[in-house]
Each structure stands twice: as structure tokens, then as C-alpha cells.
Specification:
Layout (H helix, E strand, L loop, with lengths): L1 H17 L4 H5 L2 E7 L18 H9 L1 E3 L2 E2 L5 H10 L30 H7 L3 E7 L17 E5 L11 E2 L2 E2 L1 E3 L2 E2 L6 H16 L6 E6 L11 H10 L5 H26 L6 E7 L23 H4 L3 E4 L8 E3 L3 E2 L3 H9 L13 H4 L11 E6 L3 E7 L2 E5 L9 E4 L15 H18 L13
Parallel strand pairs: 1-10, 1-11, 2-13, 3-14, 4-5, 4-10
Antiparallel strand pairs: 2-12, 5-8, 6-7, 8-9, 11-12, 15-16, 16-17, 17-18
Helix pairs in contact: 6-8, 7-8
């Protein structure tokens, strides 16, 4: 009898415990967050570009839900990345401007105490990886491995001076974990291949992964591989040199994204992966970018600098070919990813989950004032409340806000400030309240003077 009981116990252990995959590995999705750099709203063929072909990103748009009212938190790089990873307005975690190599030109220090999405997901059992551009700190304590990424293979700094040489101000910022590396090849190709390698290595792991894939492209320098530029010139007769180079850089980026998605499918990971795609800000107009119908571009707080392409794909969960009219910001992706992962947290954030909307459910979101700022020798500001938007885009040249009704005038062509003083005053009051809160947060890194 004792022997039979032992056998039964062993069979029960095999059936219900030791040889069963953890529930989390079955129920939690992998998460692939793709962030591209300076991609304009009008620079995808699925968003209306006529001289550009982006079949891989277009396929993602068709395979999931698209949001045409998605806004970057800031019209430049570092602040939007801080908002993405913290779920907070960038000013409130110490990154109101661009973090750069030299103190005199650096405008942020990510709060070391701010809980990042990596912390939340790791608590829920995820492995975390960043491949590509970090741009939230060059030194301890703000390096990727210190801020919750188990694996880092990419670029610490801001822009590259050369996509092949991988240097900035004659300093090499390419790393694998904390080790300086000197890889050969175009940065886009490197980030693509490193992502494919990571996905391949993840096949046998029972834990879900969070892969944050942050390409430098199509940020300046506009430096596509020669064969991609030649292909664009052959196809688009009469295209100008400036535009041809940007189109080629974007098409090369699109091809890399396609290879990463193909790897997901080949590995059997695609069906259980939530894929999010967007840009950190609008396109840079003086290098040939298009922001579609929206006014202005990168570095400006009109919609051309803030409104960016967005889609989410989750096979079997998100209905393909859908569109959601909800307005959302980059910081909303933090709680969205956490909810998809079943990851709880108690700390306060400013973002709110849009997962129900992405899944096609009716979601009633309370109206909020949505703030956009950029600090660099003066503070550019914008605030949206409902259909109304105030803009202070040239702080050195003028001291007053402009006022626009985005429903009637989405191109921000007619300033209604003088005609609507009450509405203007209401939004300015909200902006001042935000500024008072932001001014309590020191954005200087330890090496900078705290005057």
C-alpha cells in the first residue's frame, strides 16, 4: 500500500506540478515595445505618404488597432522616453529637456527613485531587455542595467554623429550591458539583428519577455545605406536629394522591423506577444519630413511636433484593422503594458491604461488636462483640455499663449485667444498649476550647478 501511495503521489506531482509550465508563461503576453526616432505622422505609406513604401509597419497597422489621436509627451527625445518608462509627465521625473553629453547643454536627470515599467514587469515575472537607444543617462545611477533592464545592447547617448561609426562628440556610447563595444555596420541593422538574437535566445525561457526596441532611425544624420538610397531614386523619379535620403532611411528601418516581426513568427512567439509601435515625436521638417496635415514639426508644441503614428497588435485579443478615436499620450503605455501583463503597482502615475480601448471595449475616460512641455533655455508649453489647446511655442519672442479649437481647426491656423478670454484663462490656470508642481522637481544632474 505504501508503495502504491508513493506511486500515486509521484504521478500527481508530474500531472500538477513539476512538469507543467508556470501559469504566467501561458497567460502573460510577451511585450515588444518598438519606439522609433523622429518619424513624422505623414511618413508612412499607411498614413498617406505617396513617395514612400513601408510594408512592414503598414502590416502592423492592418494587423491590429491604430490610433490617429496619439500624442508624444514631448516634441523631442529624452522627455518622451522618460514619460514612456515612468508613466509620468517628464517634468515630474526630472527630464523636462534633452539629456546630452555636456552639462551646459543637458536638461534632465531621471529621478533615480522613480519606479520604471521595468520594475513593475519584473515583479510580475518578466525578463526585461532594451536594444537600441537609451538616452536617459550616461552614468550611474541612470544606466539601463541599473534601471531595471536585465539585458542592454545598444546606445547610451542621444543622436549618433554617424550611423556606421557609432560615436557622439568623439565618444563611443555603444554598449553590451556595461561593456563598451565597437560593432561594425549600420546602427539600424545592428539593432535589428540584436533583437532577433534576443528573441531566439528567449524561445526556451518560460518567463515572458519585455523587449523595448528603440531605433535611432530616422533621426539625423540622414544616412541610409547606399543601396537603399539608390533604390528610392530609381523608383521615385524627380525626388529631391534631401527627401530621397529620408525616405531611404525610413524604408531601411521598416525592413528591419519586418525582420524582427518575422523572427517572432518563426520562433512561435508572435501569437502571444503584444506589439506596440510609435514614435518619440514628430518629424524634423528641415530634413524633409512630413507630419501630414498637422502644423509644424519636431521641437514645436503644435500638433506636428506631438502627434505621431501608433498601433497595437495582439493576435487573438486585438481586432485587426480597427481604429480607436481616444486621445492618448506616450505615458499611457506604462499602465497599459502593466495591465496587459497582469502586473499590479501602487505608486502614483499620470498615465492611464488604454488597454480596454485597444481590446475593442467601451472605455469612458474622464476628461483630463494634457500637458506638453520642453525646456531648453526657455520653456515651450501646450495644454489640451477637451477640444481646446493653448500653445506657447516661442517663449523668447512672445509671452502670451495662443488658443486653438482642435475640433474646428485641427491645423491650428486661427488663434482664438482674443475672442475667448474665459477659455484661455481656464487653460492658463491649469498650465500654471502644472508648472508650480514641476518647479519642485530638480532636473539637474549631480555634476551641474544647482543655482
Amino acid at each position: 500500500m505504501s508503495r502504491n501511495r508513493t506511486l500515486c503521489s509521484l504521478l500527481a506531482l508530474i500531472s500538477f506540478g513539476a512538469f507543467v509550465e508556470p501559469a504566467g508563461a501561458q497567460s502573460q503576453p510577451n511585450i515588444l515595445m518598438i519606439l522609433v526616432d523622429d518619424l513624422g505622422y505623414g511618413d508612412l505609406s499607411s498614413y498617406g505618404a505617396k513617395d514612400l513604401k513601408t510594408p512592414s509597419i503598414d502590416a502592423l497597422m492592418a494587423a491590429g488597432v491604430r490610433m490617429d489621436r496619439f500624442y508624444a509627451n514631448c516634441p523631442v527625445c529624452s522627455p518622451t522616453r522618460a514619460a514612456l518608462l515612468s508613466g509620468r509627465y517628464q517634468d515630474l521625473v526630472g527630464v523636462p529637456g534633452v539629456i546630452r553629453t555636456h552639462d551646459r547643454a543637458s536638461w534632465g536627470f531621471l529621478d533615480p527613485k522613480a519606479p520604471l515599467i521595468t520594475d513593475v514587469l519584473k515583479t510580475a515575472g518578466y525578463r526585461t531587455a532594451l536594444i537600441g537607444k537609451w538616452h536617459l543617462g550616461l552614468n550611474s545611477p541612470n544606466t539601463p542595467n541599473e534601471r531595471g533592464f536585465d539585458h542592454f545592447h545598444g546606445w547610451l547617448g542621444d543622436m549618433m554623429d554617424d550611423y556606421y561609426q557609432h560615436m557622439r562628440h568623439r565618444i563611443r556610447y555603444m554598449r553590451r550591458q556595461n561593456e563598451l563595444i565597437k560593432p561594425k555596420g549600420h546602427a539600424t541593422d545592428l539593432f535589428t539583428q540584436w533583437s532577433i538574437d534576443y528573441l531566439e535566445q528567449s524561445r526556451s525561457d518560460t518567463k515572458p519577455f519585455f523587449l523595448y526596441l528603440a531605433y535611432n532611425a530616422p533621426h539625423t544624420p540622414i544616412q541610409p545605406p547606399a543601396e537603399w538610397l539608390a533604390k528610392v531614386k530609381d523608383r521615385e523619379q524627380g525626388i529631391g536629394e534631401r527627401r530621397a535620403k529620408l525616405v531611404a532611411l525610413i524604408e531601411h528601418l521598416d525592413d528591419g522591423i519586418g525582420k524582427v516581426i518575422a523572427a517572432l513568427k518563426a520562433n512561435g512567439q508572435y501569437e502571444n506577444t503584444l506589439i506596440l509601435f510609435t514614435s518619440d515625436n514628430g518629424g524634423q521638417l528641415n530634413v524633409g519630413a512630413s507630419n501630414g496635415p498637422w502644423r509644424s514639426g519636431k521641437t514645436h508644441v503644435y500638433d506636428g511636433g506631438l502627434r505621431v503614428p501608433f498601433c497595437a497588435v495582439w493576435p487573438g485579443k486585438i481586432q485587426p484593422g480597427t481604429n480607436v478615436a481616444v486621445r492618448a499620450l506616450t505615458m499611457d503605455l506604462y499602465p497599459t503594458m502593466a495591465e496587459a501583463a497582469g502586473a499590479d503597482f501602487e505608486h502614483a502615475i499620470d498615465g492611464r491604461s488604454i488597454l480596454p480601448s485597444l481590446l475593442g471595449k467601451t472605455q469612458t475616460l474622464a476628461q483630463r488636462s494634457e500637458v506638453f512641455t520642453w525646456l531648453q533655455r526657455g520653456k515651450k508649453k501646450a495644454l489640451i483640455l477637451g477640444n481646446w489647446k493653448i500653445v506657447l511655442d516661442r517663449p523668447k519672442e512672445q509671452s502670451r499663449f495662443e488658443l486653438y479649437n482642435l475640433e474646428d481647426d485641427p491645423q491650428e491656423a486661427t488663434d482664438l485667444a482674443l475672442a475667448n478670454p474665459d477659455k484661455l484663462a481656464e487653460l492658463i490656470k491649469l498650465m500654471k498649476a502644472f508648472d508650480a508642481k514641476a518647479e519642485q522637481v530638480d532636473w539637474r544632474r549631480p555634476s551641474q550647478s544647482k543655482k
